[in-house]
Design goal:
The protein is α/β, with parallel strands linked by helices and 488 residues long. The protein has a domain of 117 residues: Beta Barrel (Ribosomal Protein L25, Chain P). The protein is 30% helix and 26% strand. The protein has 13 helices and 27 strands. Strands 12-25-26-27-23-24-13 form a seven-stranded mixed sheet, with helices on one face. Helix 8 links the parallel strand 8 and strand 9. Helix 2 crosses helix 11, helix 7 packs across helix 8 and helix 11 packs across helix 12. The chain is elongated and about 105 Å long. The two termini are 31 Å apart. It binds one RNA strand of 78 nucleotides through helix 5, strand 6, helix 7, helix 8 and helix 11.
Amino acid sequence: MEKLGVEVETKKPKAKETGLQELPGTHENIVLRFAPNPSGPLHIGHSRAAVPNAEYVKRHNGKLILRIEDTDPKRVYEPAYEMIPEDLEWLGVKADEIIYQSDRFEIYYDIARQLIEKGAAYMCTCDGATFKELKDNCKPCPCRDNSVEENLELWEKFDTMQAGEAVLRVKTDINHKNPAIRDWVAMRLEDAEHPRLGTKYRIYPMMNFSVSVDDHLMGLTHVLRGKDHLANTEKQKYLYDHMGWDVPEYIHYGRLKMEDIALSTSKAKEGIEDGTYSGWDDPRLGTLRAIARRGIQAKTIYDLIIEIGVKMADSAISWKKIYGQNRNFLEPIANRYFFCENPQKITVEGYTEGRVDIERPLHADHMDRGNRVLPFDGEVYLAQSDIKDGMFRLMDAVNVDINGEEITYHSTSFEDARAVKARIIQWVPLEDNVNVKIVMDDASIKTGIGEGALKNLEVGDIVQFERVGFARLDEIADDELIFYFAHK
RNA sequence: GCUCCGGUGGUGUAGUCCGGCCAAUCAUUUCGGCCUUUCGAGCCGAAGACUCGGGUUCGAAUCCCGGCCGGAGCACCA
């Protein structure tokens, strides 16, 4: 007992220091953002970005902006505009404001013009290959020497040019030791139709440009992003310098590798279109909606991401870890039921006690939830895989000997079963049951039968099928219940 | 190739900034035990790591140098 008291005491301070390192810079009025590209619904990788942002905002009472980065019409998947907020809500991430970059083109144009006027950006009419050749050798391209007037004139005509004919470049350092940093593109021409803008604009900002402008204008105090943006951060700082803006605090985190599912959004989309996957919530996908459908709790993902934190080292998260954590959440909430896969109807020969109602608690640790009642009269369904020679105890009912096809009554007392360490197996009554299908994590299906009490469940309920595992009720069909399997 | 960034048990982390309190934390995992009834759950217990080599120091997971391994970026994508 004493131990318990001590444990509670020492646990408190521990919970406080979880995961996230303290934010550098100011903690007052922080403004953070989550800025996905709307190419599909959110997957586990997105939570890597969304969760720490949300958590910092929560801890410091700051502001979180959801900024939809839809400046590449070719990569916009229209339903994603709806799906992203839904996914965030599930995750428990609450944005204070939602902004679409596609609403902000005039702002980008305005800043672009200012840059040109400052001589900090120039219209470049070189073709890509030529520019790269020069740039890689620390040579400025001829356009770099254009006068402000010439640039302004070209800028005005930009809209009338052919896609690919010119771009707007931000001046950096043509001798920068990393060629990637040298004079990057800020604006390009794009003829593809945009889902929200149609063909209203042809001049599109590049990510590095729109991101810098927005981060500044929206008052971001800290920018959290993957270390794949390290070079972009350096590029963007040149723009801040040109404009005389203060640079926010940048924090870069490592890559998150997800065991098994290396599935990119574009691959998933292909698979859905060709019928390989049933949809964005196919159990094989790593989307948040697929994970949710399987009964993985948002808190499991959220906590795991916080635990991983924002350090630069890469990390790999395993399903084992997710399942283990999730089980801790599910264990107390999931009521227990019997399910038999590939049910075999059997008769217990020699059983003469007649019909009895077997009562078994919905959850052994929560007796207040009551019992379920299973009528037993010597005839039951067993899972095919459980029918093996030997002595078994039908849970809470009787002990039987199985010998090939023959199943005979042995005894009723539990002690007899214990004495021989008989395996205790679940069963389903003949007269009160329901067809059950369980969709597994690899999309295969377990077909079987479950006890009648399952009929009281509602979609979304999570149960534990004893000796099978945890599953979430996904659909109540006319003649069967369809579950999605979470884990053991 | 060039530029940059990492490296604590199987996995994720704490500790690294400001060397000793670290024979290294917690979780997951694996294994074992327990259980008047899930030996696929639960409960209890155990196992398992500082990338390597030098250096500095009385003392290094922590500081320095080098190697090895891993990752990212090098677009008119985000």
